[in-house]
Amino acid sequence: MKIIFFGTPSIALPSLELLNSIPGTEILAVFTQPDRPVGRKKELTAPPVKELAKELNLKVIQPQNKAELEEELSKFEADFFIVIAYGMIFSEKVLSMPKKAAINVHYSLLPKYRGASPVQEAILNGDKETGIAFQKMAKKLDAGDLYLLERMPIAKEDNTESLMEKLAHKGAELLPFLLEDIFDNDLEPVAQNHKNATFCKKISKEDGKIDWKQSAEQIKNKMRAYAPWPGVFTEHNGKKLKIIEADLDEETFEAGKFKLEEKILKIGTSHGSLIPKKVQPEGKQAMEISAFINGYL
Questions:
Q1: Which residues pair with 101 in a beta bridge?
Q2: How many C-beta neighbours within 10 Å does residue 50 have?
Q3: Same domain, residue pair 143 and 31
Q4: Domains in the chain, number
Q5: CATH number at residue 144
Q6: Quick one: CA dihedral 137, 143, 147, 150, positive or negative?
Q7: SS3 letters across 66-128
Q8: Judgement on whether residues 118 and 146 belong to the same structural domain of the protein
Q9: Helix or strand run (H / E) with residue 148
């Protein structure tokens, strides 16, 4: 099987590494996003997929736009395109290029949570399970026919980082068997029920702002969903305060009010309260709540 792999962030790494190790499978090229400036110093940084592809001695291509993408792809004849969080919408011309299929690995139970942040959305909504959708790509976002849906429970302690890692490894395990079945014409995709489709957006830093009129449980879910990025924050004395770790308490009082009792800080919500354990005041390092209480309350 001849494969072209498309991916950018670390969630794509397990699949790339496993596909490269399978006898009889050849990765013709790895397409990933261009290097970008990262951090305060704006240092030009390669995507995780590029770094792994170079370690594996695979050909790396980083198109700047759709025209470059089409031009580069025209040089190859592949059986499959495998796409995991690549970051570019494909044209119908590109989708028609592989001999067998262009397959996207999407981390939700499609048609639920089409879009850019399905793992975060599942945690945000307090879902008990999520999963992996292997879809035959269509021009409309995440609307392609489904080869397989694999369900996975969401543990109470899971945040986006831990859940993505589980999904990435499980998806990698399943992918070789799926490709073999499709290659041998033993598996046909099934249409999604588009009436049940729900959508999630691209997350911004401002999405991390806490609404204290939500319940304590909803706010805790937001903390889990937005870990490690963008994190959640509120304001204290006119400055931003990130809340990194917190427990829940059943006591309900005025939403957004800080209440200090015997060196325990509680913040009121619409239902229950939040007990911060680790915070980061604006312009400071993260600190245990005891240090915050001593220095800021």
A1: 80
A2: 22
A3: yes
A4: 2
A5: 3.40.50.170
A6: positive
A7: HHHHHHHHCCCCCCEEEEECCCCCCCHHHHCCCCCEEEEEECCCCCCCEECCHHHHHHHCCCC
A8: yes
A9: strand 146-153
Residues 6+ apart with CB under 8 A from 40: none
CA distance linking residue 22 with residue 151, whole number of Å: 25
* Residue range 167-196, pLDDT digits in tens: 999 999 999 999 999 999 999 999 999 999
Task: Tell me, yes or no, whether 35 and 139 share the same domain.
Answer: yes
Is the torsion defined by CA of 251, 253, 259, 260 positive or negative? Answer: negative
105 DSSP β-pair partners? 134
Give the integer Cα–Cα distance in Å for 9 and 19.
Answer: 17
What distance in Å separates the CA atoms of residue 242 and residue 22, rounded to the nearest whole number? 44
pLDDT band for position 42 (cuts 50, 70, 90) = confident
Question: Which residues form the domain of 114?
Answer: 2-200
